[in-house]
Amino acid sequence: MAQPTGSSTAPRRNFAHSLFWYSVNMMSRTLRHATKNTNRFRRHVYHRARYTSAGRAMLAVSDVAASPRDAIQRKSAVVAYNRRHPNTRMNRQDGYAIVQPRSLPGSDEIIALSLRLFEEKKRRLEAAIGPDTELHAKKWAFLRSVLNNQDLAQHPQLVDFALSDGLLSLVTNYLGTIPHLNRVDLLYSVSHGGEEAISSQIYHLDPEGRRQAKLFLNLRDIGPDEGPFTFIPAAATSQLINVMKRRRASDDESELAMGRYLDEELAQAGGLDKSISVMGPAGSGVLVDTSRCLHCGSRVKPGTYRLCLYIQYCSSREHGNLFDYSRHAADPVRYLATSNSRRSANGQVAAPHQMS
């Protein structure tokens, strides 16, 4: 009697096929969890290490060890650059420099361009439903990114402003190296409809690297109702965190202990009276080390909004915008500042909910 062909092999093939894709999905899921845990551990290490002399030394060594040749090139280039452009306005002890209107060359033109781009995109931003993850949706409720990589390519003036001597020299003299230009964006802050502060509206430190500098340049008049960027200088931050961490010792593994500090805690430690709110007309702002200065913002009251130009410079290699670094091939300083962005083409950014 003839035996049926294929009747027993088909189920085996189907089973093998299902098993293969199940294994692939499980491996992908495991890798995602591993990456998430690695990033969480990295943030934890950075947060703890910044507040001991041994920890700061360890982080300084790790910055160099990650890419020795790159670190040497940056250090060498910054010596000559800072000699040509000495600028000590960003205080190394307190980690910030207040920016007055028109104090940065070219700021008037950049403010006009930024406002025009915002008006072009405002309707789409307000209609957008935001990210599909709970964590990112929380921040999207009150803080939205306006620009993407295509916008920066079409309007290179924004990147040129970030790399202009008047601004870049503030950063290089503070960091003592040629930084990685990580983000250039417009941040649009609105009321989330509640009274309670959430996410980055709570005082916190940023996780990127040992030190960094962020520019928050107001693009319209900002008062208390617009939720101004608010920070505590680095020297005071260090003292406050040591006090609050001792008080929190019994709950040291909580997520808040990773770098978020409630107003009530700061008030008890005498910290709120040390805070500085960056209010003023268009063109006012601050350049601040958000890795060292506790900060919060976007506590916007209903019926208004905050809009600022946001530029981030990092001492460490992070994922952010993708810049056309080939434009600066003949300029070692600008090339070093933008060349790391090639890693961002397929990488995860530090704030994916803000990248449109």
How would you describe this structure to a colleague?
The protein has 356 residues and is an alpha+beta fold. The protein has a single domain (50-354), classed as q2cbj1_9rhob like domain (Jelly Rolls, Sandwich). The protein has helices at 9-49, 53-66, 68-84, 107-127, 134-140, 149-154, 157-162, 165-175, 234-247, 263-268, 332-339; strands spanning 96-99, 143-145, 180-189, 203-204, 212-218, 230-231, 260-261, 276-277, 285-288, 295-296, 306-314. The strands form three sheets. A six-stranded antiparallel beta sheet has the order 1-9-5-11-3-2. A three-stranded antiparallel beta sheet has the order 8-6-10, with no helix packed on it. Helix 2 (53-66) crosses helix 3 (68-84).
